[in-house]
Every structure is written in structure tokens, then in C-alpha cells.
Amino acid sequence: MSEKFDVIVIGAGPAGYVAAIRAAQLGLKTACVDAFVGKDGKQALGGTCLNVGCIPSKALLDSSKQYYNLAHNLPAHGISVENAKVDMSTFIGRKDKIVKQFTGGIGQLFKANKVTPFFGKGKLLKGNTVEITGSDGSKQTISATNVILASGSVPIELPFAKFDGKYILDNAGALDINEVPKRLGVIGAGVIGLELGSVWNRLGSQVTILEALPDFLSVADQDIAKVAKKEFEKQNLTIKLGAKLTKAEIKKNEVVLSYEDKDGAHDLTVDKLLVAVGRRAYTEGLLAADTGVQLDERGRIKVDEHNHTGVDGVWAVGDAVRGPMLAHKGSEEGVAVAEWIAGKAGHINLDTVPWVIYTEPEIAWAGKTEKELKELGIPYKVGSFPFAAIGRAVAMNEAIGQVKVIAHAETDRLLGVHMVGPGVSELIAEAVVAMEFKGSAEDLARIVHAHPTLSEAVHEAALSVDKRAIHKGN
């Protein structure tokens, strides 16, 4: 007879492991099933985010930023360093050490909270039973009153540019390049393409990004996107918009790309190619045919506003369901579902989930863009403020970008806050808090912000909504 739990979570990424820990905190007997294998061949908790996504990419971004600063930013401070070099084994090794620290940390959290981990691929069977297939093919079943599906997502592979792990890479492969490629091609100017393109560009690679859409960062506010694109191009990132890849062939240790844009057909030869055209929900082998759980037209698990699938006791969270594919969104859904299962008041507001791109300058936003508000017919007013007028940013020699605040024209309620500049990944939190509490631009404008800080740009942008910013002409 299979072991019985109150909650089984399938998937130990940021949605799944958080759901498991919160369920256990609430006194529910909890199991978490995951099949991710680390570099050492052992189970590695944390999913894509901790193993080959958020955490390792930020480690490489920070390391590459240190190197880039030596050559490009420190001279302005009167500091010079000659013959700076990058030891790639240490560069990649530091990233691997950080990954191991955090994936191991989840194991310790499971132990501390009495979550039972299972290593293998989980499949939901009828009656809330989960079949676990181990790496050796062995099978076992466990069951629960509630099952939370947190299977995550995988990179989208192009049929004419299939991943080979050597020349044509997904996000995982681009984190483990053992020497700086002279020429790196990137397909897709989204979060992954821009971040990993920035890593290798800073180390000296000639990076060309091909983006099929005509607009740069179409999901972001276009005032912010324009500033970002201009700065990336100053950093020698080549960004080609409206460029659709048609073929990628490996010839003589190079990748020959064919693409089309408004000017016709072109060829581009690179040493490595990163394909970062998006991710799709990972549901292969997750559901037995008779579970009753349904998928939508994009292969995502259908859920209601409480992340329930409509099948008694079966829930789904994270990248496998609707909403932005962001780790923190998945984590909050995991917490909310655990609390709903325990009979408490869970909460997740998809309208205030912040987005962040960890380039230099950073890009962050929450809420609606101007374009979205125009399409919805919602009246609004806008205030903005440049980091060039912020003393702290100038002192840091990072006076690039701006904060833009959008409020309802009649009620003044915050509808969206958009930023590009230094440290905006942290600054966006203030806007999210204000929006969660149904705050107004006036609320942000009346809060005292410390001087000199970067956060003053948020204050002044809020003042600018009503044309009363102090340190710029309105």
C-alpha cells in the first residue's frame, strides 16, 4: 500500500519547493517529487531557477560586471588596472559553487520542515495518486488528499536550430561556455537573451541579437525600452529587430545563420548560438489520461483564480499555469495554494507582479504600460524623472535612465511604475507595496525619501505626475 500524505507537490522549483515548505509549516504531512539532476549526477532541488536560471545567471552577470568595470567604469574614478584577465574555470566555478549552496539549502529546509523528498519523475494518476519513476526506471506510488502540480517550464526549441549543447545552446548551455566565444549569436531579445548576451559581451564577445518582433522589449513600457536599447547599443550589443531566423547550420566549427528582415535575406556566422525565444509549460508525462486535469491551447494547466484545476484536490502553480513565467510569481502562488488547502486566506495578485531584467542598466516594472492603458481606454497621467538629476546616481557614475509613474487621471491611483537605471530591481519593491495597498501617486509623493539615494527618483517621478517635481522642469 502506497504511503499517504496530506499534500504531494510535483516539482521542486521556486513554485513547488515553496508550496511544500509552506504546507509543512501549516502542519500538513507533505512530500515533494522532483527529477532534476545536477552536474554531479545527484538530485538537485530548486528547478530551473536555482540550477540553470535565476541564480546562476545572476552570479555570472555579477562576475562579468566586475570585469567590465575594470576596463570601462573605474578609470572615471581615477582607478586603473592593466592587463586584467578572466580565469574561466574560476568564473564558471564560482557560479557552480553558488548553485550548489542554494540547492543544498533547500534540502536542509525540507529536513527542518519535515518535507519528504522523492527523487524521480512524478506523474499524476486518477484519485490523487502519484507515480514516481526513478532514474533507474523503478516505480513507486504515493497518494495524498491534495496534489500541487508545479512542473515548471522548458526552453522552446526551434525546429531549424535544435539544441546540441555545443554550438546551439539553450539557457543552461549558455551558462557553461568554457571560453569566451569570439562571436555569439542570440535569438530573442527577451530577458534571457539580454542577460546572457550581456554576460559574454562584457567579457569581449561580439554579440548579435536577432529579435523577430519589430519592437524592442514589447512587454515593457516603450519609453523605458527605448532608453535601454540605446544603452545596450552603446555597450556594443548589436540588436536587430524584425529579424526572423530561417536556418542555422553548423559548418567547420561555426554556426551559419540565415535570417530575414525588412531589407531582405542575410547571413551571419557565429561561434556559438544561444536560442532564447521563450519557454513553454512542461507537462510531458505529468498527467495520466483519466485524471480530468485539462490543458489550454498553449499546453498550460487550466486553473481558476485560486489555482484549482477543477479536479477535487488537484492544484497547479508556477510556469505550468497562466500568468508571467517568473520565479517569484510561482513562489507566491505556492504559498497561496498551501494556505487555501489549510483553510486559510491565500492571496496572489497577478496585476502587481514585478518584472526585472538584470542588465546594466537594470529594467523593472509593475502594473500596466501606457500602451496597455490606451488599449483599455483607461484615462491616465504620467510623471517621470531622470537618474541624471539624482545626486547618488551621479556620484556612482551610473546616472542613466529614468523612473516613470502612471496614475489614473481621475482617482490618482497607481496603475504602473516603470524604471530603467541603477538598482531598479530593488527600487521597484516600493512601487509594488504602494500598488498592493491601492496607493496613489500622491501617496508616493508625500513619503519622505532619504537623501542622497536612488529612491529619490521614485519620489520625484511621483511628484512629476502633477507637475510638481522639484529638481526638473515640468
UniProtKB/TrEMBL annotation:
Subcellular location: Cytoplasm
Cofactor: FAD
Domain of life where this protein originates: Bacteria
Keyword Cytoplasm in annotation: yes
Disulphides: 49-54
EC number: 1.8.1.4
GO biological process annotation, one example: 2-oxoglutarate metabolic process
FAD/NAD(P)-binding domain: residues covered: 5-334
Keyword Nucleotide-binding appears in the UniProt entry: yes
Catalytic activity as recorded in UniProt: N(6)-[(R)-dihydrolipoyl]-L-lysyl-[protein] + NAD(+) = N(6)-[(R)-lipoyl]-L-lysyl-[protein] + NADH + H(+)
Annotated FAD binding sites: 58, 122, 319, 325-328
Pfam assignment, any one: Pyr_redox_dim
GO cellular component, one term: cytoplasm
Domain Pyridine nucleotide-disulphide oxidoreductase dimerisation as annotated: residue spans: 353-462
UniProt keyword list: Cytoplasm, Disulfide bond, FAD, Flavoprotein, NAD, Nucleotide-binding, Oxidoreductase, Redox-active center
InterPro entries cross-referenced by the UniProt entry: Class-I_Pyr_Nuc-Dis_Oxidored, FAD/NAD-bd_sf, FAD/NAD-binding_dom, FAD/NAD-linked_Rdtase_dimer_sf, Lipoamide_DH, Pyr_nuc-diS_OxRdtase, Pyr_nucl-diS_OxRdtase_dimer, Pyr_OxRdtase_I_AS
Cofactor: binding comment: Binds 1 FAD per subunit.
Active site: 451
Positions of NAD(+) binding: 188-195, 211, 278
Note: The active site is a redox-active disulfide bond.
Membership in a protein family: Belongs to the class-I pyridine nucleotide-disulfide oxidoreductase family.
Protein name as annotated: Dihydrolipoyl dehydrogenase
Species, as recorded: Dyella monticola
Gene that specifies this protein: lpdA
